[in-house]
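Narrative progress, year one. The postdoctoral researcher (J.K.) led the effort to move from monomer predictions toward full complexes, under supervision of the PI. The following entry was the first complex the group processed end to end, covering 652 residues in total.
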Amino acid sequence: MLIRFENVTKRFGSFIAVDNVSLDIAVGEFFSLLGPSGCGKTTLLRMLAGLETPSAGRILIDGVDMAGVPPNRRPVNMVFQSYAVFPHMTVADNVAYGLKIDRVPRAERDSRVAEALALVKLDDFAHRRPDQLSGGQRQRVALARALVKRPKVLLLDEPLSALDAKLRDAMRGELAAIQREVGVTFVMVTHDQDEALAMASRCALMNRGTLQQVASPGDLYEFPANRFVADFIGTINLFEATLAVDETDHAIVRTPALDAPVYLGHGVTGATGAQVWVGIRPEKITMTPADAPRPAGPAAMPHANRTPGTIMTSAYLGAVTLYDIHTSGGTLIKVTAPNGTRSASPALPAGTQVWLHWEPDAPVMLLA
Amino acid sequence: MRLFARKRGDAGPLDYAGRWSLRSWVAVVLVFQYLPLASLVLFSFNNSKRTIRWEGFTFDWYGRLASDDALIGAFANSLTIAAISTVFSVLLGTMAAIALWRFRFPGKGVFDGVITLPIVIPEICMGVAMLVFFGTVAPWPRDLVWPLDLGAITIAHITFSFPFVTVVVRARLASFNREMEEAARDLGASELRAMRDVLLPHLRPALIAGALLAFASSLDDFVITFFTAGPNTVTFPVKIYSMVRFSVTPEVNAASTVLMAITIALTLVGMKMQGTDIASTESP
């Protein structure tokens, strides 16, 4: 393991910013620390950089305990949220700064600076001053300045939050490409789940100082560990439910929110009769008009996984249309319908009666 | 095309000079502010011993200044005191500002409140306090060689100069992005080196402004200096005062003009240094 957090806790006065976090990050990963603001993700990153000291626990980088190692002696470099490009130095001087401190010989320094600037496509800006650069260009300077030191780990603190939407999308792809090119382990803090899902190979979702789940973006979305994860990542319809049947190949959950049972195509580990939550993502629900033939549920349980409802509101979002549907069970369910053809685009009017149904592997059951 | 067409003579909201009442007000202010200074300078070139009537142009009085050893000595004293006290004021003032900005420590609130006291306390009180302090509490040794004999005055000047530096530097510190310093640390700089490479360049305009304030306030201080000066440690303003006690001669005018010219020149140099500096360090 390249990075290892062992039971790391950070307290600021009586506030616990990071609560007993243990986490391993491997070489070459693009790892993302994700969570709402104040969840402790930035504190975790700053402890890795040496800008904060853990109140308890150990942090190891490449097997070396980082306790007492100041930030200037750690094999990590950081891209700060404000970029922190030095305003009184040219772009080239900014990038060369860390190498000058390391007393890298002039010739090698120059070639490494040129290489780093080429990597971030700023070759032509070497002699500009930061106040002559755009926000995106300043970020590239910060990136080059950190990468030129060839760190074992590159830390990125909300790298895209200060960019406008178009640039953000472009930088997403570019950051991932740069990471593949240099092969350095990236640890990125973000509050933006899209950013984390799109770029990271693995994510740690945090809340209130604790790790909620560490998984690949796909697993985080499709196999959330608990209600917080399910709710934070994307949109989900969550219902309180009771576990009625738990067999090896299927499980049946009953919820007062829906007037049909929910049939899951796999067994779960829970005691029958236990209080659970069941979640279904909006895109995994199919909507058919009420006058169409009634949809059949799973073969084993034809009346499950379907419910009648009435469209309350709709929001046309371009690629999909988002509907709020009132079920006869008395709850609102969010459903997205893809606009597969142009003529499909006009949203169904409010008041339309519809059937909602879903596949046995669409719902996810959560114990906590 | 004019966006807001208006009749001639109809003053717009920002056309202050277009209203006769405001125009005369400005004239009165300018006259009272600059006429005394202008006449001081003018009569320093007056070819007459009396300062009231213009008799012709001459550089005589400046020549006489140059040969007045007592005046030259006082001038040298003033510049020396100002230079030394500026160096110490900038050092102490900046350190105090950084301490107040960066750290939490017991008594910080009191320190914060007391630090600007020398600015607001009436000079006469400071003067008397210095007289008592150097007279009875900690007498400055007599008969020291120059410039050590200026120690008491210099210390007094540092006392009232460094708070100016603190105030200016603190204001500048407020706009410092701490991530800059952390970035320098992250890139390998020690704490001291990060301060030198990142914090100091940011503070430069404030350091220049603070140094100018300290230098100017030391150079022209009369009251506090008067109480701490001994017979051999006369400064330029004190010397001018003693000359005026007998009569206001054109020589006094010339001496004052020199002092004024130095102050203006320093201010211009400072503004120039700050101007170029701000242009190159300002971050959006």
